[in-house]
Amino acid sequence: MKNKAFILILLIAMILIITGALFKIMHWGFGEGAWINGNTILATGLTLKVAALLGFMISWLTAKKKLN
Fold first, then answer.
1. Residue among 47, 52, 53, 54 nearest 39 (CA)
2. Rounded distance, CA 59 to CA 52, Å?
3. For residue 13, how many other CB atoms are within 10 A of its CB?
4. DSSP string covering 29-68
5. Would you tell me which of 3, 13, 24, 65 could form a disulfide with 48, CB atoms 3.0–4.6 Å apart?
6. In this structure, are residues 30 and 36 in contact, taking their beta carbons and an 8 Å threshold?
7. Nearest residue to 36 (alpha-carbon basis) of 24, 46, 26
């Protein structure tokens, strides 16, 4: 079950990264001075990706430690 959650978080992160890149490339946005722009979306996606990967590595290492 935990692995499915990590995969779901990674998928959401990849969607956010692609969306953020499109926002930057296509110069989309919500107006001047908006809080949400391409950089914000990219940062959110990258943060989620790093968090999911760290969580997965920690759970993998603790599972491997329990086997020994």
1. 47
2. 11
3. 20
4. -SSTT-S-SHHHHHHHHHHHHHHHHHHHHHHHHHHHHHH-
5. 13
6. yes
7. 24
Token pair recorded at residue 20: 């953020």
If you count them, how many residues does the chain have?
68
Q: Which two tokens stand for residue 21?
A: 């890149």
C-alpha triplet 27, 25, 45: angle, nearest 5°: 100
How many Å apart are CA 17 and CA 10, to the nearest integer? Answer: 10
Which pLDDT tens digit goes with each residue over 38-56? 888 999 999 999 998 898 8
Paired tokens of 55: 């969580």
First to last CA, the chain: 22
